[in-house]
Amino acid sequence: MTVNASDAFEEELACLEEEGGIDVLWTGPKWERVIKSVKLRNPEVLYRRTARRPAPELAAESLATLRERDDLPKGAARLIDEAASAWSRKSSYIGIAPGEGRTFGQVLRLAGAIYERLVEPPGNEVDFRTFSRLVSGDSKALERNLSSVASAISRLYLVGEAQAALDAEEFLASAGVNRLPQPVLIYGSIALDDRPFPKMPFVGVPAECAGRVNLHERPAYLLTIENFASFVRYVREIGQIESGLVIYSGGFPSRPVLETIARLARQADAPTYHWGDMDAGGVRIFRYIEQHLASVGVSLHPHMMNADLLRQAGSRAQGANRIGGDVTESAIAELASIIEQTGLVHEQEEFDPQSPLPASAPVRL
């Protein structure tokens, strides 16, 4: 610091002290004094001097409009108080930066609307942007604030254990809100309105028509498959020579896919399996389908998803691989335990498709 800059700094401190904003403590002889410390006396003096405003004041102002709204979900006032406290410390709240009152309002509205779909399912799928536009007036608000919306729901409402373990996008899918509703892809002897489909590698039924699909002939087994490449390979390489029923879960299954799986599994009354990735996401998908099928009296078994296979073929996960939720009663509990204990994971596409029928060849690594 130059002499001129040092003198200007000391003059500024002297002015602030004279106005009652600070106390300056000097040390050393009078002809060579140096500043030892500065103590704040009245922050209002410094705010006026710098043309700034206190963070608590800014937080209260940015949230004032939200406090007056009557279209927010019950319990929103508590979250607004929590946001005010965080923003007063210049910290973000559920991923929303201080002062973003408009964004926070959109998040609260979206959270309430999604929970309504969980409590009273409307029976239709809706895409992210349409849902976001109808609820918040901004078609991209949901995509921009996906994790914040999920956090708001978890703070506003009590949700089931299985849903609490899902990531944000999986959680929304359980409420029938997806990036874009996908058709239900099925291989097997099925019919639409009692009219059987011709034999094809697989058929795609629009989500809104999935409830009209039923079995035409009873299969030897039902298999759901998590990833698209593995689904296509399976139906082309294995399905064509067997009488199984194979359904693409689309990763985490949407509501029409899940309801189709449950309906056809009840009709099939045959061994029911799921084949997916051996990682935290794959376990959550398995558990979600398993619990839904259990509610209709169908047991789900893992296919090519077990601890021995993971030990043989798995590799270390790049990041955290926490599963979440209680899976101790699940058919996949041992695999889940190994994933969390060892950090090993494995993607299903790295395996060649194999039938779940007992006579099938061992899995090729």
TrEMBL record:
Residue stretches spanning the membrane: none
This chain belongs to the protein called: DUF2220 family protein
- Please list the residue ranges annotated as the Wadjet protein JetD C-terminal domain: 215-315
Q: Which Pfam families does the record match to this protein?
A: JetD_C (PF09983)
The lineage, from the top, is: Bacteria, Pseudomonadati, Pseudomonadota, Alphaproteobacteria, Hyphomicrobiales
